[in-house]
Amino acid sequence: MRTNLIFFVALILCGCNRINRDPYTNTPTTGRIKVYIDETFKPVGDAEIQVFEGLYRYSEIKPVYLPESNVFDGLLKDSTNVAIASRMLNTGERDYFGSKKLFPRELKIAVDAVAVIVHPENQDTLLTVASLKDVLTGKINRWDEIYPGSTLGEMSIVFDNEKSSIVHYMMDSIIKGNNLSKNLSALDLNTDVITYVSEHREAAGLIGVSWISDRDDTLQLSFLKKIRVMALSKESIATYQNSYQPFQAYMHDGSYPLTRNIYAINTEPRNGLATGFVSFLSSDKGQRIILKAGILPANSPVRVVKVRNEM
């Protein structure tokens, strides 16, 4: 009788433990985390998180979309264990984590592009990289300096945020040590850039291409109705034959000149939800989401079909 009583009590306690166990315990597929993501990549981040949470019922991922500089600030201040950005950690940042006995894992998950957009009534949609550099540094300030006969007058160049990855990319890869023109204007978000350009005939804007590259997204289709996407050329004179828009095919073969990598940086000390989510990003399913978003997956093969038409 005593043995039966002990067994009965143990069974009840075991059942209580199962009932009281938090289903959100931190594992690679369960738990609650914040992920800091460069605002430029918000369409991709939203899509990845939606599918991941759909697959894993007890996962809760809260995205925090910020300019790239603030993303790394959050990573260094331990506000998050995962950052998605267009650069890897620099030496100082790695040394900081090393001093805390942490060894971040940095994984390339995609290739993105910076798109140059103009007002839909602007017929001048071919641009050389050299002219773009002159615009960014203030050597060119008027549309007729690029396109003689243009009636648009003085150019208005806008980008998302002074701390954004787009600014860093232009400084590091296009103007290379020169100063940005004081005539450039920082707004706040990529959507703000699209709205501004759609309302100002003389404007040109710089945005992440994932904001306008998913043809199945009704919001992005509405954006495309408001603006035109410029075709860029690496040559000294831009022609229809040597200028390319940021389609996946031209990002893949290097024809489109404004491309950059996207990285997922994981500082989690043990394998929890942060590690599981980053692994998902590089998995076949995660990479297919990136492919559908209109940018290039880092790992999955890309079927290249070249079609010369405008966005």
Topology:
Blueprint: H1 2-20, E1 31-38, H2 42-55, E2 59-66, H3 68-76, E3 82-85, H4 91-99, E4 105-118, E5 126-128, H5 129-137, E6 156-159, H6 165-175, E7 185-186, H7 190-199, E8 203-208, H8 218-224, E9 228-229, E10 231-233, H9 248-252, E11 259-266, H10 273-282, H11 284-292, E12 296-297
Parallel strand pairs: 1-2, 1-3, 5-10, 6-7, 6-8
Antiparallel strand pairs: 3-11, 4-8, 4-9, 4-11, 4-12
Give the tags.
single chain, about 300 residues, alpha/beta, D-Maltodextrin-Binding Protein, domain 2, 2 domains, 10-stranded mixed beta sheet, two-stranded parallel sheet, about 35% helix, about 20% strand, disordered N terminus
Explain the overall architecture.
With 311 residues, the chain is α/β, with parallel strands linked by helices. It has two domains: 34-111 and 260-297, Periplasmic binding protein-like II (D-Maltodextrin-Binding Protein, domain 2), CATH 3.40.190.10; 114-252, D-Maltodextrin-Binding Protein, domain 2 (3-Layer(aba) Sandwich), CATH 3.40.190. The protein is 36% helix and 21% strand. It contains eleven helices and twelve strands. The chain has helices at 2-20, 42-55, 68-76, 91-99, 129-137, 165-175, 190-199, 218-224, 248-252, 273-282, 284-292; strands at residues 31-38, 59-66, 82-85, 105-118, 126-128, 156-159, 185-186, 203-208, 228-229, 231-233, 259-266, 296-297. The strands form two sheets. Strands 1, 2, 3, 4, 6, 7, 8, 9, 11 and 12 form a ten-stranded mixed β-sheet that branches. A two-stranded parallel sheet has the order 5-10. The longest helix is centred in the first third of the chain and has 19 residues, at 2-20. Mean pLDDT is 86; it is low at 3-14.
